[in-house]
Write a structure and sequence with these properties.
The complex is a heterodimer. Helix content of chain A is 76%, strand content 0%. Chain A is an all-alpha fold. Chain B is an alpha/beta fold. Chain B has 2 domains: 239 residues, P-loop containing nucleotide triphosphate hydrolases (Rossmann fold, 3-Layer(aba) Sandwich), CATH 3.40.50.300; 118 residues, abc- transporter (atp binding component) like domain (Coagulation Factor XIII, Chain A, domain 1). In chain B, α4 packs across α5. Chain B starts with a strand and ends with a helix. Classes of the chains: A mainly alpha, B alpha/beta. Chains A and B meet through α2, α5 and α11 of A and α1 and α3 of B.
Amino acid sequence: MLSTLLDNKYLIRELVARDIRSRYTGSVVGVFWSILNPLIQLVLYTVIFSLVLKERFGDDPSTGRFAEYLFCALLPWMAFQEGVTRSSRTFIENSPLIKKIRFPLEVLPLSVVMSAFFHQFLGTIVFVVVLIFNQTLNLDLFALAFLLYIFQILMIYGLSLLVACLNVFFRDIAQILGVLFMFMFWVTPMVYSKTQAPEPFRWILNLNPLTHMVEAYRFVFLGSPLPSFGGVAYWLAFSVISYYLGCFILNRTRNELVDLI
Amino acid sequence: MSSAVVVNHLSKVYKHYWGPRSLLKEVLLGVTSHSRQWALKDISFELQEGEAFGVVGNNGAGKSTLLKILAGTAFATVGEAHVSGRISALLELGAGFHPEFSGRENIYFNGALQGLSREEVKDREEEIIDFSELSEFVDKPVKTYSSGMFLRLGFAVATGFDPAVLIIDEALAVGDQHFQKKCTDRIMDFRRQGKTIIFCSHNLYQVKTMCDRALWLDRGAALAVDDAARVVDRYTNELREERKPLNGYPPQQNDSLDCAIERVATLDADGAPAADFETGDTIRLDIWAFFGRKFQGTPGIAASIVRNDGLLFYTTTNTKDGVELLPLEPGHFYGSLVFPKIPLLSGAYYFNVVTTDQDNLQAYHIVERAANFTVHGGADSGSVKLEHHWDNKLPQAKTLAR
């Protein structure tokens, strides 16, 4: 699997570039939108949550930082949602490529995931610049972010492969995902802190690997709150298992899949 | 010489699920909810490097499935197909194009699809743009192209990266007459360069002319793998028995005025115009043809004798016979085809005359019933007079044995 991806690294680069460029063809400022979008979003959150609603995030006494906590969690979440949702349709949308050209299937979801990650990365740059401006960036653990990226991509890619394959057989998957993400958004502590969740429901949050991913990102960029290390280990293991599960499912269904597309 | 393609006991089953719920039922409950269709049954053959291999058969015989498996876009259920070297499949031209991107960007993208690096594509970029004749349009989005431009670029890209094995499904030639000629020339070049070609077509004439060997598929099974001419002849026979119409010529190009038959006349042995003959007479067919400036190569003329009920007796071309036409003024050519002692019996006949290229793969101007003639054949019955004699002696050996 990994060797197929390495053999096709140039193809993947072209696909990602094609995906990013196609989003902005004909637009005046082009890829600049990928920076403008998160910037506007971040400013909007700051105005609404910190200035208008004066929300506090968890145990943090300052009202000014709510947008930071929220945005820090939203960046990986959006990459997750976009990557998995678009991957679920990628085999069907690219059926001319798959049916008419010999095409390595594993490349398609990866290019979708990497294109989503590209936007996350640009968003993160905006985010970090704002943090530096606010003087709230936690520099001690900053380098660890790249480690988190690797596991995050591994998880998204694995799940993307899974839904991409299953959706060929059961076209309902893409619809089910929409509903699932609606739930996932609220059982992941993004607009609230884990400590704010009532005790009887907290096990649901702990069971959700994304909870620990979000906490890990917050700890790395903002330095608080301290995540549960068992939880983070659980997320890392989940990422690796997702990846292998995705690969396994693709290899099992590959031959029949192309007949059904 | 080594094997370029090895196909070993290849079979392919398509599963047809009865509906979206039946697959779920099958997965969850283990109840079989599909019917099976054998698209290919136990196919085996081996191709040497540089061989041109034809695939013939009726619609639904499994030709496309076989090409898909060889191209790697479908997988075998049983058995294996192995192709060595980079494959380029002309299954659908321009399938990998993105409409929003320019021709040039699509060249790079398709190069990547075929496993080439940016540098390797760069080396061939100019040649591909040249071949597709897009020059000033190459940096415009593909969605603005006419369908002809789109196909031209598709063909140039599919054949432009020096593949080792070329898989062609019908789409031998695209665009106008001039570009079609370029397409067939390029494929013939590939053949001369010793590339392996797998060619599937309903045009038996092209299969016979182009391929060394051929496979005849019938409802998924291989009826024959043999010398192309022999396979096509056997298949033709079968079609005749089923009374299916036959196409004896390559397809005529739309833009045919550039290479035109100008005048045709039948003459007798003394060179005087004639239309009535006796069996055993000499018939001479004079042809004047024009080949325009766009035409490149050796001008060819094909002539056929056909009876008025459509039965084709014989077709020949000057290029196949190794004879060049006589050039008159620039662009104008003359040929005179002589049939000494014509064996035809009584009936009304006509000549079909066609302008072709040197490989007889392109037909430019097809003139049916270019010249009519009648033959009076005396008392014999049948279609042609066959050489014969009677030898009414008892064989000696037999007598002795008794």
